[in-house]
Amino acid sequence: MFNLSGMQALLYNGALLLAMALIYDVIVSSARSNALWRRQAASGISIGVIGILVMSTPWELTPGVIFDTRSVLLSLTGLFFGLLSSAIAVLMTALFRLYLGGDGALTGVIVIVVTTFIGVAWRQWRRPALQAISWRELYVFGLVVHLAMVAAMLTLPWPLSLFVLQTISLPVLVIYPIATLFMGLLLRQRWRRERAVEALEQSELRYRSYVDNAPHGVFVLDGKGRCQEVNPAACRLTGYTRGELLQRPFCDLSAPQSLDEARRHFEQVRREGYAQGELAYRRKNGEIGWWSVAAVRLSADRFLGYAVDITARKQAEQALRRRDALLESLSFAAGRFLQAERWEDEMPAVLEYLGKASGADGVFLFQNEAGPNGKLLASFRFEWTAPGAVAHRDNPLLQRASYETLGFARWVKLLSGGEAICDHVRNLPPGERALLQSIGVRSLLALPIEVERQWWGFLGLSYSRAEHTWSDAEIEALRAVSRALGVTIEGLASRARLRQQADELAQIMEGVPVGLLLLNADGYIRSANPLAQEYLRWLTSDAECKQVTALGDQPLAKLLTSPTERWGHLVSVERRTFEVRAQLVERAPEPASWVVVIRDLTNELFVQQQLQRQQRLAAIGQLASGIAHDFNNLMSVIILYAQMMMQSSTLDEHDRERLRVIEKQGLRAARMIRQMLDFSRRTAIERQPLDLLPLLKEQVKLLQRILPENIQIDLETALNECYVFADPTQLEQAFMNLAVNARDAMPDGGKLRFIVEKFEFAREKDAPLPGMTPGEWVCLKVSDTGVGISPEDQEHIFEPFFTTKPAGVGVGLGLPQVHGIVGQHGGHISVASKVGVGTTFTIFLPALKTLEANIGADEIPMIATPGNRETILLVEDEQALRTTLQEVLERWNYRVIAAANGKEALAILETMASPPDLILSDVVMPEMSGIALFRTLRQRQMDIPIIFLSGHLRGEDLEELRRHGLEAWLPKPPGVDLLAQTIATALRKGAGASDKL
Length: 997
Fold this sequence. Notes:
Elements: H1 4-30, H2 36-56, E1 59-62, E2 65-67, H3 70-80, H4 82-100, H5 105-126, H6 135-152, H7 160-213, E3 217-222, E4 227-230, H8 232-238, H9 242-245, H10 259-272, E5 274-282, E6 288-299, E7 302-309, H11 311-338, H12 343-358, E8 362-370, E9 376-385, E10 401-402, H13 403-406, H14 409-416, E11 421-424, H15 430-438, E12 443-451, E13 454-463, H16 472-511, E14 515-519, E15 525-528, H17 530-539, E16 550-551, E17 554-555, H18 556-559, E18 569-573, E19 576-584, E20 594-600, H19 602-646, H20 653-679, E21 688-691, H21 692-706, E22 711-717, E23 723-726, H22 728-745, E24 750-761, E25 775-784, H23 791-794, H24 814-824, E26 828-834, E27 838-846, E28 871-875, H25 879-891, E29 895-899, H26 902-911, E30 918-922, H27 930-939, E31 946-950, H28 955-963, E32 968-971, H29 976-996
Parallel strand pairs: 22-24, 28-29, 28-30, 30-31, 31-32
Antiparallel strand pairs: 1-2, 3-4, 3-7, 5-6, 6-7, 8-9, 8-13, 9-10, 11-12, 12-13, 14-15, 14-20, 16-17, 18-19, 19-20, 21-23, 24-25, 25-27, 26-27
């Protein structure tokens, strides 16, 4: 049931609560504490007092059961004030309710606790956005709280609880939520105001903290520029206390040089609201510093200035400017040295630039050198002096001076260790000070110079007019100059060595007898020596070859592999053969670089072929010589007996004709033997100074008569004379053989040319054929336009019995005979032929520059006379020939004593009472040869005339034997007439010599 008086009591109690809440808000807001827990405790006590006051004027429903607005107060306390304030308020109001007592005391305490708990719980849920709580939510909050309060009435004794619920439910649920709404709105406004105040306080605290702890000066100025606030950093910068700075005009802190600029800055910040610049300021102790000032306008008459001390930076900048001036001198020196060939040429200009940049009175350079006894000496190399300063380079004390003798041993230790010497002369040790003061130096700086990690000398700067103190920046800059100078000296020296090495390498590359190529991975030519460039024209057919893809018919990729032949990779191009070898460069600037070596093997292979041919021909010649010797002995017996039998008067004409056939065939066989001996160079030749041109002219005339008319024969030469030391008969035979060979090669006619010329070479490598020695040579070319010789046959044309002619036309001894004759004359022969074009034989003979008189042999008289029982010692190892010769000689009325060899002949001579009139001896014999017999007789001074019979007496042996008294020699088989004439002539010369004696 509705109770109007109760309603009025509740309204009155609610109004009281709101009034007291307003009073509390005013009191608490004006007395804030910085400590949060203190503020919460004070709020809890104040709310507890209000609760007690509210509970003191309740609506008493029944004795001991009272109603008031404490539920509104405590629920909002839990919502807006937190746990500590709520706990204090709950404790105070609960204790007061228990103090009041009655049947509703316990229920009253339950209401206090429950409503406060709901407020605290709601706060935790809504706390992030508590200041944004709406009036609707506050009304719902009040309704929830008081529904809980109504429910708490069930804790009263029954039926009191029912009575209470019927009486208060409607008033409580109508009035209390509204009271909660209004009081909540009031507290929400207070909450918002309190949060704003707290934010402002925090901001002020942060601002004060920032200002007080700022590392740079902060100044707050008024409209007249006077300091209203400064921070500790500003006091430290200026050296003034805070009290001294306050009310002091900021511009009064500026140094004289920045005073006007400081005033302009203040006017700028008043006008534009912002100004910034760098100003010099004066500290309290008078020192000048620099600060960077930024100022802003806070209001019309309030300004904030922020000053950063930049004194150290300004000092560093000044030092850097001085250092930069010195470094410019380094740049100047580098530019001069880069263009120089010798650093000495540029040093005077470099020292002058350095002296002007540093402001020194003198700049000098000393170089170390080793003196006697291992002492280290210093020589004054270069010097620059400022105008008015005294030069010291010509001072004899400073040339090749010992550090130790001058008293500067300390400098050796310091400078060799890389340390600089920088001081005023007055501070130096006495020994050093005395010398330096004597030449007027007041301050100096000496910096070591290292070249190739060795102390080379030092760079010095001196001040004579006043003392000078170097900054660290200046010293470091000058150290850089001294290091650069050392690097320059080292670099130029290295550059000179590199140039020398490059020149030597270039000379080596140009001088090596092979082509050298340096290729990159793509085959591009990075370097090539002259021979390689020449060979590339053959191998690539490109005179301006830049990239190698192949050499000849072989691709580059194959040539870069390891060769399987001992010659390497062989490349043949136009009858020239090259050897190619490639080597990978391990440490090249580019990956996969290759060194390719190209060697021209054409001449080497030709020489090898010639040597092989000569070895083959020598072996064949040795065999032919042995065969010819024995064959000569046989033919001598046959021919001599045939000639003896033809002299018999008892023969009829038919038998005489048969003997003539035997003699003719024997002589033919003898000629063949002679050709074999010519090939093996065993034929005795009689060389003499010979003009080759008349001999060739006569030979050409003879050939024009005997060769077919369809063959044109020419002699071509620009020489007037052409002397050689030769046997004319042998050369005629060689020319005839070549002409006959040419005739057979031109069955339909053609042209036969004899070309004579001279040439000379000084180095063996320039010889056209192997084995030719440097000097002057005669070159004779015999050229025809015949069918030519195939390359396969050219390898064998000088071999005996090799022929390309049909059977019965030739026996293959003509060209071997030519080969042997040329060789006997110390010459060389080569052939060049092309099938269908023709053949050219080239003969090289040593040229004869001076003529020797009386070299030729005496002519053999052709008068044949019988003997007069002269004694002839016949020495022949072949029994049949010895018997034949003995019979022939005895028929010619000579007394003959026969011996089988030289040793036996010496034994016979020792037993003879008187020496024989003549010795007729073979040359090649066992035990002792004919030549050994001859030399033995000459050693024993037995001047017995000796005639040699030989099929292969060498020309050089014959010339030596003639110089030592050889009477004559006869080839085997000897003709009867020639033998008789030679013996008669020798005996006649011997008899004439005896008569003279």
